[in-house]
Structures are given as C-alpha cells and as structure tokens.
Amino acid sequence: MMASTSDLDRQIQQLRECKLITENEVKALCAKAREILIEESNVQCVDSPVTVCGDIHGQFFDLLKLFEVGGDVPDTNYLFLGDFVDRGYYSIETFLLLLALKVRYPDRITLIRGNHESRQITTVYGFYDECLRKYGSPLVWRQCTEIFDYLCLSAIIEDKIFCVHGGLSPHIETLDQIRTIDRKQEVPHEGPMCDLLWSDPEDTNGWGVSPRGAGFLFGADTVANFNRVRLCLTL
C-alpha cells in the first residue's frame, strides 16, 4: 500500500529530525520512487533556476544546512549530482530524505547517479554496514541499491548545461548515445556508463588512464570537442 501525502509528509519530517522510518515504509517509498524514476531519461531535462549540489556522502547535517541556506524543497529547485551515501555516518537518513522529497516533489528535485550508488562500492565504504547496524538486516540496503539502478545518469539544464557526476567518455560523442544506455544495472567496470560516473577532469590534453582504475582522465580539448554540439559542460 502506497503512503498517502500526509504519511509522506510525516516521514519527511521524521527524516529531517534524523529519525529512521520503518523497514516497511522504506519498501513503500522505494516502490513509489521507482515508478517516478523509471520515467526519467538518462539525460534528464532540468529547468532553470536550479541549485546544483555535489557529493553529500552521508553528511546529513550538511544537507540540512544546504536546505537552510539555499531554500527548502519545493521553494528551491535542486539538482544533486550523486554520491549520496558512504563515508559519512548518516547515509541512510540522507538518501531516504532525498528520496522522500523526490517522491513528494518530483519536478523540484532531480537525483542523478554517482559512482558510490553501487552495490560493490557501498559494501566497502560504509553504506552496507550502516544499514545492517541501523536496521538489523540487509533488506533496506537491497531496496536502496535497487533504486540506484533507476537514477538518471546525467542532466541538462535548459538545453545548455550538461551535468554529470564524473565526466566524459571516449565512447560518447553525443547526448543521444547516453540516452540509449541501459542504466538499470549495477555500475559496470568499464564502458560508457562507467565513464560517466568515474571519469575525472585533468590539466592535460586528450584522454589518460585514471589512477582510480575506472573511467578516464580527460583534458580541456576533449571538453571542447564534446561542446561542438553547442553545450556548456558542468561537472
């Protein structure tokens, strides 16, 4: 049974207080979020004005401060560039609050995938262990990591500013190539989808091998080449 608007508002308020919602509520929230996210594009269109936010990494109180300074949803339109979880102590509260806001105000908050929105990465960097510690089982982790597979890979603001968590790929020359990627999967170890989430800009020319073992290093000339379709790249 899906949560009503009043139930969802209560859950949002509860999460804002850094209090967990129940496992059944997480399951229902993820089911509703999946219905919304599956309709979004790999290159999701976002209206301006919008506040663009980088990695949160479980820093829940930084997220609250961000809303305090930038304005609350739905008053402010937000685009989050991924890496919601891992490293911080409040990854589950952070991700569930953002997900609940997405379900409540789907046109006022856009969530794209980062390289930490991955089953493999979250088992190493803290999110899996946090879910076990706080819920006593891996079920909430499984629900959340399934949602990761439905998150957009990138966004474009007013058809002018391209936003992605990581960077470019030598396998991608056009936005249409991104649109054809099957994103509903675990992050691959190589290939275009991997590169979008893992690549890094570098003060060099051309493409280089990433020391992180996934994605590529890319220089200003590769950005200029990508921009020949008259886009302005934002990382």
Automatic annotation (TrEMBL):
The keyword DNA-binding does not apply. Keywords: Hydrolase, Manganese, Metal-binding. InterPro entries: Calcineurin-like_PHP, Metallo-depent_PP-like, PPA2-like, Ser/Thr-sp_prot-phosphatase. SMART domains: PP2Ac. It is an enzyme of class 3 (hydrolase). Transmembrane segments: none annotated. GO terms for molecular function: metal ion binding; protein serine/threonine phosphatase activity. Coiled coil: none annotated. It catalyses: O-phospho-L-threonyl-[protein] + H2O = L-threonyl-[protein] + phosphate. Residues 112-117 form the Serine/threonine specific protein phosphatases domain. The keyword Cell division does not apply. Its cofactor is Mn(2+). Its EC number is 3.1.3.16. Belongs to the PPP phosphatase family. This is Serine/threonine-protein phosphatase. It comes from Dibothriocephalus latus (Fish tapeworm).
